[in-house]
Amino acid sequence: MKLSILIPTYNQDCSQLVKDLAAQCKQSGIEYEILVMDDGSTDPVTIKANQQLMDMPNMQLFEFPHNQGRSFIRNRLVSYSTGDYLLFLDSDAVVTRPDFIANYLRCLPTDDVICGGILHPDTLPSRRQSLRYMYEKHCEPKFTAENRNRHPYQSFRTFNVLLPREVAVSHQFDQRIRHYGYEDTLWGKDLEKDGIRIRHVDNQLMNGDIERNLTFLRKTEEGLRTLKLLEEKLRGSSTLIDYYDKLKQRHLTGLMTFAFYLLYVPVKLSLLSPWPSFKVLQFYKLGYYCSL
């Protein structure tokens, strides 16, 4: 049995992640490979740091000169891999447990897709990162394996997920999604349609890259624009679409849009402040979505 660890990256130094994973794989005695695919990074320091990984055994680095999109990169990683099982990890993940690989190996063999989960630092790195941190820590209690298994497809993220190679080959990511957001949700819905089980376990990695407030807000807006394009496909899999549909049934989307534009400046300033509010962020997201 061979394990392929697949890491798409963009302007992210993942050298420590790769070294930690390689050490655990070597300790476990499993046959493995680690494939890192750079989606057109522009930061020379990051590029150089990742290129140094090419000297490691069982490690390959692929670089694209221009950004291709997250779905394209993941599909290409699958096509280059040779393992019986594939472990998708985001490049900003941090290994915080010495038994991370061993925990996944205990789940094998399996026909399921296994989602390990995500954790965030116990303390706020910086007030400039308070928006993403607040949002994730507010949601984190819902993302124990027990809670995620209650709604396994709605709680799905590809941040840290193990799956049989056959599933990855037969269920590719939708490459029409070139922008940030919801490609993993759509992928999970495809798995559900075909009766492929998603099983959630407590084998989390730490999110090591909490974006600054303005960056996270821009990514949130980009994700909402992607969600709007996928609205029909993701209806029933998105709480935000559920709220939008309720407003639409009551002919209140116009009023929500008006309130969003009326309060846009103070709400945005509040979200970019050192002490943002989860409820204000939810208002912003729903108002922005209605405005689309």
Provide the β-strand percentage band: 15-25%
* Largest beta sheet: strand ordering: 3-2-1-4-8-6-9
Can you count the beta strands? 10
CATH topology of the largest domain: Spore Coat Polysaccharide Biosynthesis Protein SpsA, Chain A
CATH class designation of the largest domain: Alpha Beta
Fraction of residues in helices? Answer: 40-55%
Secondary-structure element pattern, one letter each: EHEHEHEEHEEHHEHHEEHHHHHH
Specify the number of helices: 14
- The rounded Rg comes to 20 Å
Gross morphology: globular
Low-confidence stretches: none
Distance between termini?
48 Å
Helix and strand content put the structural class at alpha/beta
Mean pLDDT: 94
CATH superfamily of the largest domain: Spore Coat Polysaccharide Biosynthesis Protein SpsA, Chain A
Reported CATH architecture of the largest domain? Alpha-Beta Complex
Number of domains: 2
Biggest sheet overview:
7 strands, mixed
Descriptive overview:
- The chain is of the alpha/beta class and 292 residues long.
- It has two domains: 2-211, Spore Coat Polysaccharide Biosynthesis Protein SpsA, Chain A (Alpha-Beta Complex), CATH 3.90.550.10; 214-291, no CATH class.
- The protein is built from 14 helices and ten strands.
- The protein has helices spanning 15-28, 44-51, 70-80, 100-105, 130-139, 145-148, 165-170, 183-193, 213-229, 231-234, 239-249, 253-262, 264-271, 278-291, and strands spanning 2-9, 31-39, 59-64, 85-89, 93-94, 113-115, 118-119, 160-164, 198-200, 205-207.
- The strands form two sheets. Strands 3-2-1-4-8-6-9 form a seven-stranded mixed sheet, with helices on both faces.
- The radius of gyration is 20 Å and the shape is globular.
- The relative contact order is 0.13.
- The model has no long low-confidence stretch (mean pLDDT 94).
